[in-house]
Design a protein that fits this description.
Belongs to the ABC transporter superfamily. Ycf16 family. Keywords: ATP-binding, Nucleotide-binding. This is Fe-S cluster assembly ATPase SufC. InterPro entries: ABC_transporter-like_ATP-bd (IPR003439), FeS-cluster_ATPase_SufC (IPR010230), P-loop_NTPase (IPR027417). This protein is α/β, with parallel strands linked by helices and 246 residues long. It has one domain: Rossmann fold (3-Layer(aba) Sandwich). The chain contains 7 helices and 12 strands. The strands form 3 sheets. A 6-stranded mixed beta sheet has the order 6-9-10-3-11-12, sandwiched between helices. The chain has a 4-stranded antiparallel beta sheet with strand order 2-1-4-5. The longest helix is centred in the middle third of the chain and has 15 residues. It is globular, with a radius of gyration of 18 Å. The chain starts with a strand and ends in a 6-residue tail after the last helix.
Length: 246
């Protein structure tokens, strides 16, 4: 599904990714761990097409297409979803307005008919119920006044509505209490655990991986993936830190 080969990227002229390679197949969950400043969030931003994060070398293919040659909205329409460590607030635009426009824009780009208001509301309410989110929050401005846990639940509702093929989730566990962490983990499994979907979880901690079992754990250090293992690698890192022997 996703093939990254010798990817190099910089922000404001400073090289952050220094020859990163990774292959993610459909049906897989990959966790990426690493110290601060290693390039984990930069990887997510480069794949998502965030402005000012410039790929300077290597290649990325998504579903056989050149991902780096696509605009951000085209990447989303192709099935890529980027979850943020700190979801932004959008005053003046309700969740319902935002999500309906986002979904229908993607559907139009894929040659599909847009959903009617009634069809969309039925979908949105079902996703909110599944995440334990009060449906009144769908009417509120996007993330405005939400707690950290509410923002992450809201992001999972967004993901459920958009139905991506590949979700890149940047420290989704950040700021979550135990109940919210379990709800988010259950949401990831419900929405993305499928033979035709895949997940990249960027995280500092083992705790999210207790709920979303990864197939592979990678250590990203100084702009490259230096180690790969199974779930046991995350447990080792939790015990011993990133200075453990390879």
């Amino acid at each position: 599904m996703l093939t990254i080969t010798d990817l190099r990227a910089e922000i404001d002229g400073k090289e952050i990714l220094k020859g990163l390679s990774l292959t993610v197949n459909a049906g897989e969950v990959h966790a990426i761990m690493g110290p601060n400043g290693a390039g984990k969030s930069t990887l997510g931003y480069v794949l998502g097409g965030r402005p000012n994060y410039e790929a300077t070398g290597g290649s990325v293919t998504f579903g056989g297409e050149d991902l780096l040659d696509m605009d951000a909205h085209a990447r989303a329409a192709a099935g890529l979803f980027l979850g943020f460590q700190y979801p932004v607030e959008i005053p003046g635009i309700s969740n319902v307005q935002f999500l309906r426009e986002a979904l229908n824009s993607q559907r139009r780009a894929r040659g599909e008919a847009p959903l009617s208001g009634g069809e969309f509301l039925k979908l949105a309410r079902a996703q909110a119920d599944a995440l334990g989110m009060d449906q009144e929050m769908l009417k509120r401005p996007v993330n405005v006044g939400f707690s950290g846990g509410e923002k992450k639940r809201n992001e999972m509702v967004q993901m459920g509505i958009l139905g991506p093929r590949l979700a890149i989730l940047d420290e989704t566990d950040s700021g979550l209490d135990i109940d919210a962490l379990k709800a988010v983990g259950d949401g990831i499994n419900r929405i993305m655990r499928a033979p035709d979907k895949a997940v990249i979880l960027i995280t500092h901690y083992q705790r999210l991986l207790d709920y979303v079992q990864p197939d592979f754990v990678h250590v990203l250090e100084a702009g490259r993936i230096t180690r790969t293992g199974g779930p046991e690698l995350a447990l080792q890192l939790e015990r011993e830190g990133y200075g453990v022997a390879a």
